[in-house]
From TrEMBL:
This is Putative Fe-Mo cluster-binding NifX family protein. PANTHER family: DINITROGENASE IRON-MOLYBDENUM COFACTOR PROTEIN-RELATED (PTHR42983), IRON-MOLYBDENUM PROTEIN (PTHR42983:SF1). InterPro entries: Di-Nase_FeMo-co_biosynth (IPR003731), DiNase_FeMo-co_biosyn_sf (IPR036105). Pfam families: Nitro_FeMo-Co (PF02579). The lineage of its organism: Bacteria, Bacillati, Chloroflexota, Anaerolineae, Anaerolineales. Residues 14-105 form the Dinitrogenase iron-molybdenum cofactor biosynthesis domain.
């Protein structure tokens, strides 16, 4: 399974998970089965006051053929884009990417449910 994880810094498996999806400075693209990963900067360019950062970042993630994404917070627009693309959305915060991967493999991550959707 191919994952994208939002990162605050580029420190490999010691990278902290970013608290925001759309404005995350980096993403780790990782094969959850074998652990092979690449870290790429979030190249989504937005202007001052741009409210589409989440949607643009989600579109970039979807173009990378991932099965699931892990971050702390997602906006409604990101949820809509990722959901439409069939990408699973999981919540993880306050730790390093290595811990997020362990929790994912153990089935311990909560699926994201936007407020007011009833899903």
């Amino acid at each position: 399974m191919q994952l994208a994880i939002s990162l605050l810094e580029d420190k490999g498996m010691d990278s902290p998970v970013s608290s925001t999806f759309g404005s995350s400075p980096y993403f780790m693209f990782v094969d959850a089965d074998n652990g092979f990963f690449k870290i790429r900067p979030n190249l989504v360019k937005t202007g001052a006051g741009d409210t589409d950062t989440d949607a643009k970042t989600a579109q970039m993630i979807a173009r990378n053929n991932v099965d699931a994404v892990i971050s702390d917070k997602f906006g409604q627009k990101a949820y809509e884009v990722l959901n439409k693309a069939g990408i699973w959305i999981y919540i993880f915060f306050d730790s390093l990417v290595e811990e997020a991967l362990k929790a994912f493999r153990r089935g311990q991550l909560a699926a994201y449910e936007p407020a007011g959707t009833g899903i």
